[in-house]
């Protein structure tokens, strides 16, 4: 049985107060808190094991290298990837997606070639493709979701044209919590020779991910949302795509030989990891993934489904809370406005005075908010340590907002 009280004891920050109130942390969609196991691993790495990786023959360098390289296997297991060499270390999904834009797409897409995007995308899966549009004349084709936030996989596949080279799509919206059937998109795209990049930044946090079953070419995840350190992450790249890619950055560690006149590159994945990496953040990232796996991703998903259902029922019962996105299988992410003149920033400020942390603004998803017809929302996003009592605290604080701003 999932013991949320025991889980909460693993997170030191959850015992603190904010503005004289117990902290209710509902900003997990932006960044999650860290369990003590991760904090301890970071401290241990800096205190007793730190050295640069790959370059030294001394004890500390070998120890750090072993810990760092073992992270690939942890990520591969977490995503059900057969070959750990298909995992490239990154600082997060943003770097991973940019790596694909520069290293895979830029060398092969020409003016007039098309990339299909959904309106659900985070800016991290939009702006790199705008770079290509600006520099190479690539065309961006957009697919919209319905009023509930549902993205029809067939609509994505119908957007494929003769010059479509890539589909870049989220697995779960960070605004609506909508889950996208990326496996169906990948299957249909593969039949037409179109590659698929999946932004797994939100989905990998809330449910089991099986990259082999999804069948994508690229799958990006970010450590700081997965209860790991900021500056950590990884991207899965299908071996065939790895072979097609050019290096994204140049520097130490990604080369085989360098002379005055030539350079040859290391084999993947090292070819795409120039310079001194985020050694300790990646070590902490692996500890975070192992922590989640020890709880069981199915158990985490079931716990969050319960929170989602309770929160949805209680928010709906208020009558004056407008939640954006209401697909039945959505994640426990609620972006909302209140009837009346209250701005999202005002609501967030009142909630903060009650010790409740939510996000307010556009959530790096301006095309989606424009499509939904809202300028800004508050977002309460739940994680593996949140409780039904915290939902009650949120509802009580929203009732106060309603009194103040109605």
UniProtKB/TrEMBL annotation:
<keyword id="KW-0808">Transferase</keyword>
<protein>
    <recommendedName>
        <fullName>Cysteine desulfurase</fullName>
        <ecNumber>2.8.1.7</ecNumber>
    </recommendedName>
</protein>
<comment type="similarity">
    <text>Belongs to the class-V pyridoxal-phosphate-dependent aminotransferase family. Csd subfamily.</text>
</comment>
<dbReference type="GO" id="GO:0030170">
    <property type="term" value="F:pyridoxal phosphate binding"/>
</dbReference>
<dbReference type="InterPro" id="IPR010970">
    <property type="entry name" value="Cys_dSase_SufS"/>
</dbReference>
<dbReference type="InterPro" id="IPR020578">
    <property type="entry name" value="Aminotrans_V_PyrdxlP_BS"/>
</dbReference>
<dbReference type="GO" id="GO:0031071">
    <property type="term" value="F:cysteine desulfurase activity"/>
</dbReference>
<feature type="domain" description="Aminotransferase class V">
    <location>
        <begin position="24"/>
        <end position="394"/>
    </location>
</feature>
<dbReference type="Pfam" id="PF00266">
    <property type="entry name" value="Aminotran_5"/>
</dbReference>
<dbReference type="InterPro" id="IPR015421">
    <property type="entry name" value="PyrdxlP-dep_Trfase_major"/>
</dbReference>
<dbReference type="GO" id="GO:0006534">
    <property type="term" value="P:cysteine metabolic process"/>
</dbReference>
<comment type="function">
    <text>Catalyzes the removal of elemental sulfur and selenium atoms from L-cysteine, L-cystine, L-selenocysteine, and L-selenocystine to produce L-alanine.</text>
</comment>
<keyword id="KW-0663">Pyridoxal phosphate</keyword>
<dbReference type="InterPro" id="IPR015424">
    <property type="entry name" value="PyrdxlP-dep_Trfase"/>
</dbReference>
<dbReference type="InterPro" id="IPR000192">
    <property type="entry name" value="Aminotrans_V_dom"/>
</dbReference>
<dbReference type="InterPro" id="IPR015422">
    <property type="entry name" value="PyrdxlP-dep_Trfase_small"/>
</dbReference>
């Amino acid at each position: 049985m999932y013991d949320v009280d025991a889980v909460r004891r693993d997170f030191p920050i959850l015992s603190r107060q904010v503005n004289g109130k117990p902290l209710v942390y509902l900003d997990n969609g932006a960044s999650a808190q860290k369990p003590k196991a991760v904090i301890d691993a970071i401290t241990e790495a800096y205190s007793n094991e730190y050295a640069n990786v790959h370059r030294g023959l001394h004890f500390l360098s070998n120890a750090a290298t072993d810990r760092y390289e073992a992270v690939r296997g942890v990520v591969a297991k977490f995503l059900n990837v057969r070959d750990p060499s298909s995992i490239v270390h990154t600082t997060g999904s943003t770097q991973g997606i940019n790596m694909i834009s520069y290293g895979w797409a830029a060398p092969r897409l020409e003016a007039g070639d098309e990339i299909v995007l959904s309106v659900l995308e985070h800016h991290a899966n939009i702006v790199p493709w705008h770079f290509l549009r600006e520099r190479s004349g690539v065309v961006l084709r957009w697919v919209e979701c319905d009023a509930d936030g549902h993205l029809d996989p067939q609509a994505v596949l119908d957007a494929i044209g003769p010059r479509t080279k890539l589909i870049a799509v989220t697995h779960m919206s960070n605004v609506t919590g909508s889950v996208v059937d990326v496996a169906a998109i990948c299957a249909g795209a593969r039949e037409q020779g179109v590659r698929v990049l999946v932004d797994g930044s939100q989905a990998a946090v809330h449910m089991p991910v099986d990259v082999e079953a999804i069948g994508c070419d690229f799958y990006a995840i970010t450590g700081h949302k997965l209860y790991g350190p900021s500056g950590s992450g990884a991207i899965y790249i299908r071996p065939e795509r790895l072979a097609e890619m050019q290096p994204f950055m140049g520097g130490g560690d990604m080369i085989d030989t360098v002379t005055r006149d030539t350079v040859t590159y290391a084999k993947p994945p090292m070819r795409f990891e120039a310079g001194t990496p985020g050694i300790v953040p990646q070590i902490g990232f692996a500890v975070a993934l192992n922590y989640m796996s020890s709880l069981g991703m199915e158990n985490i998903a079931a716990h969050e489904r319960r929170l989602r259902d309770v929160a949805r029922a209680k928010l709906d019962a208020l009558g004056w809370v407008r939640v954006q996105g209401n697909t039945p299988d959505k994640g426990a992410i609620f972006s909302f406005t209140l009837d009346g003149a209250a701005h999202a920033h005002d609501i967030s400020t009142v909630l903060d005075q009650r010790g409740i942390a939510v996000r307010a603004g556009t959530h790096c998803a301006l095309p989606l908010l424009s499509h939904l017809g809202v300028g800004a929302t508050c977002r309460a996003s739940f994680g593996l340590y949140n409780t039904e009592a915290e939902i009650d605290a949120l509802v009580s604080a929203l009732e106060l907002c309603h009194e103040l701003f109605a």
